[in-house]
Structure formats: C-alpha cells, structure tokens
Amino acid sequence: MSSKLTEPTRVIIPVSKAIERTTNWRNFLKKNLEEQESWKIPKAVYISKEDILDLAAACHADKSIAGVRAYFSLSVPEEEKFRNEIKFVMVLVREEEGMPAGKDVIYLPGGSSDDDSSVYDFTRPCPDFCDTTSPLFNGDQ
After folding, report:
1. Does residue 123 carry a pLDDT above 70?
2. In whole angstroms, what is the distance from residue 111 CA to residue 135 CA?
3. What angle is formed at CA 65 by the lines to CA 62 and CA 68, rounded to 5 degrees?
C-alpha cells in the first residue's frame, strides 16, 4: 500500500525559519500559561541514537509500519505542578485503509493488555535536558 503516509517528511528549513517557529511555539504557550509556570513550556525532546535505531528496527521488522508518531504527555496529573515532567511518547504508525493519517500501534502484535505496550517513552524533554545556548531554545540569532 502506498500513500502520503509513507512519503518521507524530512524537509530542511533555514535556521532563521526554525528560530521563528520555535519562538512562535514558546510565545503561543506563554500566552496560555501563568507566568510562574512558563518554565514548563516544552521546547524540545532529546532522543538517543540507540533509541532511534531500535525504533527503526521495529519499523523494518513490520512492512505495514509507515512511520512513528510522537505525543506530548505529562508524567503526573496537571495539579502536581512541581513534580510534573513533560514527556514525549512515540508509537509506531501502521498504514490502514480509510485512515489517511495511519493507525497508532499501541499494542505488541497479539497483545491487548497494558503490559503488551508498543508505546515508547525513551525521551529526555527540554526543559531539563536542553542546549540553552541554541537559538532554537532562546530565539537569539
């Protein structure tokens, strides 16, 4: 099955455009968060090379997998402000007839319980694991 879902999405953009977009993201969230909580704005996610290779191996092992999808998440309910950590979880995405954006693969093949998960949580979110000198982090050029 061939669809837009399997087409590469890599687009190289100018650094200035990347700075503009990341600044837009931070500004958008700042408008929706109280000032004292602006430190919680998710800016980036680090994913180790080994984790990327493991995810790629899972994609290669199942020809119906078209890519991955990433979701922002919180480790605890919103009320627990000081213990909260923004996370980035990723799932494999399978091509599915009638679903142009594909279907999340949240269970291992043949599995259906929480313990049979195919949801990857191997990221280090920023804030906490950031390159604070990057113009993509702070908007400076």
Report:
1. no
2. 43
3. 130
